[in-house]
Amino acid sequence: MRKLIVIEFMTLDGVVQAPSYPDEDTEGGFSHGGWNTPFLDDISMKWAMGNVTSAGSFLFGRRTYETFAAHWPNASDEEQVLAEPFNTRQKYVASTTLTEPLEWQNSTLLQGETVASVAALKQSGGDSLHVYGSTQLVHALLASNLVDELRLMIDPILLGRGKRIFHDESALTSLRLIDSQPTTTGAILTTYRTGNGAPLA
Fold this sequence. Notes:
Layout: E1 4-11, H1 42-53, E2 57-61, H2 62-71, H3 80-88, E3 91-94, E4 107-109, H4 114-123, E5 129-132, H5 135-143, E6 149-155, E7 176-182, E8 188-193
Parallel strand pairs: 1-5, 1-6, 2-3, 2-5, 3-4
Antiparallel strand pairs: 6-8, 7-8
């Protein structure tokens, strides 16, 4: 079974919306886009790069897929170390509004109910499946115990509002910390294991 790994930039109060650019995602009147950028340093960039280059394939919700598809095929020369795996490796998209063919190369639209499709994808074997952003998708995967690892860059900032992957109705779940590293900007890079799809006691 392949491992499903969720990778998120997150504020201390759990917000994951629009970490990179001011206009990345303004849904709900969100006006704090780009909050993660001031906390990036060489340590966190190496962490982010390792997460991308180690992925076997990628899984996205619609909004994140469209954002990435608009950027990475036209990435600058300086971004090619990240653009190459994003552009060339297999990408799976969970959406009820998109239709095939998808324009971004090596992209496949999941068919049928999302949770069941992702469960089947995990069972198909292969290298790790990495999920970025995609808040609604991640929430559904967490609720269905399909996430094996959470890799979070937690920034020392409070936004008070914005999209979160952990909702008020989330079930009680224990996580095991398997790695953590502070950065020079005060952020913490963490990896939590969920028990390979089963809630931990």
